Structure prediction request, 259 residues.
Amino acid sequence: MTVNESNVFLDQLLSQTRMPAPILQMARDWTASRKHWAGPLAVDSPTDLAGLIDHTLLKPVAKPSDIERLCSEAATHRFKSVCVNPCHVGRAAASLKDHGVLVCTVIGFPLGATTPSAKAFETSEAIASGATEIDMVINQGAVLAGDWDMVRRDIDAVVRASSGLTVKVIIETCNLNEEAKIGACLASCLSGASFVKTSTGFGADGATEHDISLMRAVVGGGLSVKASGGIRTTADALKMVAAGANRIGASASVAIIGA
Prediction:
């Protein structure tokens, strides 16, 4: 999708009658404040990708020594953040103090099927432990049921609990059809999120260029887009950036930057 095609996407969507009325209404509401997208970020070399990468370790078997290694790599290569499970946030925050690397954690992970209040509590606890960015998993069942009030309440609960910190909404694209992806992105936009994100990395598939282009077309320049899941090489990462991503979630970060 070209930059121009991306910027007129919602206008074209609003001319369609096949979309459910609630999605069309969210599109109208978002169009009123949607910013145009200026185009993909310029990346001149693999090392330029470091500042876009959330260096990630979300395996349930990760040990404290694994988290220390992750943080050491992030500090050495100047990755944007480390992304760890909530139980490791305190350790990561202490390890990265004064290194300029953010500490990201995941909420309602990996299913997104907890309640808004549970996600809000988890968010508050993570921030108290030192988290500076929040990646929450959307309620996928509510998305597929078209219960947009529930979807927005869920996101809003985390945004409120985050007290102004960056909130990324993982929509788990592999589980959604096109209509649901559009609706999930619009709900994220209207609920105060900072990013939409493709995947947990625990689903059947990860980020695709098509999904990144679609998500960027919906959010425009008003939100950021994070590609995650299955990104293992420099070429993978560059394709995602060209499609509209401005953050990359990866565990193969060191290989991606060619270090």
